[in-house]
Write a structure and sequence with these properties.
Layout lengths: L1 E3 L5 E12 L7 E3 L16 E9 L18
Antiparallel strand pairs: 1-2, 2-3, 2-4
Organism: Paenibacillus protaetiae
Protein name: Cold-shock protein
């Protein structure tokens, strides 16, 4: 599945696990990869349930860790 953007460059959408608010009046949702425990809704503080959405891929930027110098004893 693709979606055209303002620049007319297609964006590839992938099935993504999410948590969405169970309150029908609330539209909040969070990607599963950004949750560490069973979440409460950040908007209404209600319970959230797992679901799926087709979303653009997100690149998580991880800072490179400095390498430890090799020890002559290893």
């Amino acid at each position: 599945m693709t979606v055209a953007t303002k620049e007319d460059a297609p964006v590839k959408l992938i099935p993504t696990k999410i948590w969405r608010c169970k309150n029908q009046d609330c539209k909040a949702w969070i990607r599963d990869e950004f949750i560490s425990t069973d979440p409460l809704c950040p908007m209404c503080k209600g319970p959230m349930g797992r679901s799926m959405r087709h979303l653009p891929a997100v690149q998580n930027k991880v800072k490179a860790q400095p390498r430890k110098p090799k020890s002559e004893y290893e």
